[in-house]
Amino acid sequence: MNVLRVGLLLPCLGVVACSPATENVAPLQEGIVYCSEGNPESFNPQLGTSGTTIDASAAQLYDRLLDYDDDQQQFVPALATAWQAYDQGTRYRFTLRDDVAFHHTAWFEPTRAMTADDVVFSFARWLKPHHPYHPVNGGNYPFFTASGLNHLIEDVRAVDAHTVEFVLSQSDSSFLANLATDFAVILSAEYGAQLLEQGTPQQIDTRPIGTGPFVFEEFRKDVMIRYSRHEQYWREAPKIKQLVYSITPNANKRMLKMLTGECDVIPYPLVEELALLDKGDEINVSSTVNPNIAFWAFNTERPPFNDPLVRRALAYAVNRAAIIQTVYNGNARLATGILPETSWAYSPVDLTYGYDPARAKALLAEAGYEDGFSFDIWAMPVQRAYNPNAQKMAELIQADLAQVGIRANIVTYEWNAFRRRLARDEHDSVLIGWIADNADPDNFFRPLLSCNALNVGTNRANWCQPEFDALLSEALAENSLDVRKRLYHEIENWVYRDVPLVPIANSMRFQAYRSDIRGVEVPAYGGVSFRQSYRVVEEQQ
Amino acid sequence: MIRYSFRRLALLVVTLWLLTVFLFALNYFFPGDPLTNMSGVRASNPEAYQQQVVARNFDQSIVMQYVSFLGHFTRGDWGQSLTTQRDVFADLMPLLGATLELSLLAMILAMVLGAPLGLYAAGQQRGAMDRVVMGISLSAYSIPVFWLAQLFILLFAVKLGWTPISGQLNPLFNIDVRTGAILIDILLSDTPYKKAAIADAINHLWLPVIVLAIMPATMLLRVMRNSMLEVLQQNYIRAARARGLSESRILWLHALPNAMQPVVRQLGLMFSILMSNIIVLEVIFNWPGMGSWLVKSIYERDYPVMQGGLFTIAALILLVNVLVELFHAWRYPQVRKELYAEH
C-alpha cells in the first residue's frame, strides 16, 4: 500500500532533510551562546547582589572608573585615566577619558561622549535620597548600603567636563577597591534625562544604556538575552558580533546542551559530571579561584536560634567533611573561618567546630532542648559557585541533625521568590553563601554580619551587634596591613564564639567551554566577561 | 443543522462563561490580595493600586467586581505579570503561536501516520503484520510522553548528535518574534540567512513533533482499524461485493468514508490529550510556548499569568472540540438524527 510507505517514510524524511546541520553560516560563526543559569533581576548591577544579574550586565554593558587586575594585584585605569588622593585620603580626584561613547540603540541616540556629568549621575542615583532616580525600581542599593559606601561618600561633583571629585567622610582603605567592583558602573545622564522627560524612568534598568563592549538588544524572560557588539567601544571592540545568553536553569539540561553544541560556554557544570566532560576533546573545563564562602546561617532573631548554645550545638552536629565529599565531590576546601585562603587577611587557625554529635547533644541539653525541636532549612533552588547543590547539602544536614534528635524540614522556592522571602526574614535557617566583590576582607564581614546589612537583606543571620560593627569600622580605618590582619583575626574569633552562621566550604568556580571558544574571562572578583572572547573558525578542507 | 450548531455554540459560550466565573473565584482562593492576584498590581504601589480598585470595582459588591472582571477579561486586559510587570495578554500571543505550530504539526503527522497504518492493519486482520502494528501501537501508547522524550533526546541528540534539544531556533539567528510560530516568523523576517534558519528551525522541530504525535497516532490507528473492520462486516459491503465491485472501489468509496466517522469523532479527544502532553513536552524541550509559560508561572506563584494560561488552554480545547463536533454533525447527517431523536 503506497499510502503506508509514504506515512512510514515521513519522519525519516524529516531526519534526512535536517541532519546536515546548518553549520558555517555567518551568524553562527560570529556569535557565542552562553547558557546562563537564570533570569537577571534587572540590567543594572547597582540594584542587586545576585551573581546572575552581575553576569548579565556588569562586564558586558558597562564600565567602571577603574578596574582591578587580579594578576598584578593592582588597580588599572578604565574610564578614568588617572586618580589622586588629597587631604589624607578624604578627597579623590579622577581624570576621565574623553573618547568614551555610549550605546546607540533604537530607543536612545546619544549626542555626546561620556563626561563628568555621567559619573556624577551614576553615583548620585544611589547616594542621594532626593535624586529623581533614587526611588526608581525599588530604591534599594544593597551593595552600597552593605559596604557602607553610602555613608563614606559625602559628595560627588564635577570639577570640569573631565574631572570628578569625591569627598569622603573619613579616609578608607577600601574605597578604590569598592569603585573597581562590578557595582560601581557608569550610566548615561543624558539617557536618564530623556527617560524622565518621557515619564518612563523605570526603563533605565530594563533597557540599559552603558559604555560597555556589548549593546543590549532584547530580553525574553526564561528564554534568552541578546547583545550585539558595541562598534564604537573605547577599547578594542569585541571580536564577536553577537552574544546570546540562553537561559537554562536546569544543570543537567545545561550539560546536555553543551554536549549537543547548543551552548558554547556554561557556568556551574555539575561537579559529578566534571570528570566526564574533561575527557572529551570537544569540551574543556576550567576553574578559577573564587573568593567565596558557603555557609549555613541561623535566623538569630527566632527562638531557639537566639541562644548561642543551640547554634553551637548545631555546628557540632554537622559533618562538614562529608558535605565536601558528597556535594562538591572534593572540589572545594573545608572552610576554616569566614575568610577564604586567598584573602591576605586569612589566618591558618581553624575557627570552626568539628563533627562531634555527643558534644552537640550535651550542648542541646544544657540549652534545655534535650528532646530536640523541629525547624526549617531553606535550600537555594539554583547552583552558585559556592554551592553546586544546596538541596543535597540540606539532605545531608537533615540526616546529621536527626542523629542528635532534631527534625529539619527542607524548604525551597523559585530563586527570585526565595531571595524576596529571605529578605523578609521568613526563614529559620538558610543554606546560602557569599562571593566577595573586591579583594578587601571587609567585603566578607560587613555585608554578611553588620547591622547595616540587616536592611538590605544580605545579613541572612539577622545578627546585629553594634560592638562588632565598631570593630569592623576600626579595621577599615586602619592603614597598617599587620594591624588590620590582627583585627580581622579578632573578628573571626568573634564569629566563632557567637556562631551566627556555620562556614562550610570555599569552592572553585567552574566553567565549561566548547573547544573552539577562547578568551572568556572569569575574574576572581566579579562576573563573567565576554569582551575578548571569540570562536576559532577552522578552514574548510 | 442550524439548530444543532446553535445549541453547540450556546453550550460553548456557557462553558466559557462558567470558566470565567471559576477564574474570578480563583482570585479569592489564591493566597494574598485578590486584586493583586487579578491585576498583577501590588499594594506596595499605592497609586496604581488605587487606580485598579476603582477600575475593577473593588470598592463595590462582589457582583459588580465580577462584572468589571468580565469586562476587563473580554477586552483583553488580563492584568500584568507579577514577576515581569508585562501585559499578560500581549505576552501570551507569541506563546500561543509557538504552541499551535507544534500541536498542528504533531496533529498532521499523527493523521498521516495513524490513519494509513490503521487501514493497513485492518486489511491484514489477524495477520502477522496486524499483530506487529497493533503491538507496537499499544506499547507506544503506554509510554509516558516525558519518558519517551528523554529517551529520544538521549538517543537522537546526545548519542547520535542529529538534533538540538531546546528551543525553536539557534538563538544566534536574530529573528523577530511576531506570531511565535517559528517557521512563519522566519518567512516574515528579512534575514539574509532564511534558508539556513528554516533548516535550523526544522532541525529543532522534528523531534518534539514526533514525540508529540506518537500518542494521538496510536489512538487514531486503533480507532481506524476497529471502525474499518466493523464497516467491512456491514451488509452493504457484502452487497457491493456480491455485485462484483472491485475491492479497491469498495474500500475507497464505500468502506473508508463510513469508517472515518468514529475517527473524526475522536479528533477532539486526541487534541485534548495532545494539549496536556504538550505542556510536559514544552518544559522538556524549552519550547517558548503556553505550556512552559504556565508551568513556570505556577512555580513563581504568578497568578495573573496562571489565569491567562489556564483560560487560553481550556478555551482552545473547548473550541477545537466544538468545531470537531460541528464538522462531524455536518459531515455525517445520521449523527444529527440520533441527537435529535434523543432530545
Q: What is the string of helix and strand elements of chain B?
A: HHHHHHHHHHHHHH
Q: Which class best fits the helix and strand makeup of chain B? A: mainly alpha
Number of domains of chain A: 3
Q: Uncertain spans of chain A, ≥5 residues at pLDDT below 50?
A: 1-22
Structural class of chain A: alpha+beta
- By CATH, the architecture of the largest domain in chain A is named Roll
Notes on the structure:
The complex is a heterodimer of chains A (541) and B (343). Chain A has 541 residues and is an alpha+beta fold. Chain A has three domains: 1-40 and 212-282 and 515-541, D-Maltodextrin-Binding Protein, domain 2 (3-Layer(aba) Sandwich), CATH 3.40.190.10; 63-204, Dipeptide-binding Protein, domain 1 (Alpha-Beta Complex), CATH 3.90.76.10; 292-508, Dipeptide-binding Protein, domain 3 (Roll), CATH 3.10.105. Chain A is built from 19 helices and 20 strands. Chain A has helices spanning 2-18, 26-29, 51-61, 116-127, 142-146, 149-152, 175-179, 189-198, 251-259, 274-279, 308-317, 320-327, 357-366, 390-403, 415-423, 442-449, 452-456, 466-477, 481-498; strands at residues 31-34, 66-69, 74-77, 80-86, 91-96, 153-160, 163-168, 214-220, 224-229, 242-246, 265-267, 283-289, 292-298, 332-334, 374-379, 407-411, 429-435, 501-514, 517-518, 534-535. In chain A, strands 11, 12, 13, 14, 15, 16, 17 and 18 form an eight-stranded mixed β-sheet that branches. In chain A, α14 links the parallel β15 (374-379) and β16. In chain A, α12 (320-327) runs antiparallel to α14 (390-403), α16 packs antiparallel against α18 (466-477) and α18 (466-477) packs antiparallel against α19 (481-498). Chain A starts with a helix and ends in a 6-residue tail after the last strand. The mean pLDDT of chain B is 88. Chain B has 14 helices and no strands. Chain B is globular and about 85 Å long. In chain B, α8 (182-188) packs across α9 (194-232) and α9 (194-232) packs across α11 (247-284). By secondary structure, chain B is mainly α. At the A-B interface, α1, α2, β10 and α9 of A face α5, α7, α9 and α12 of B.
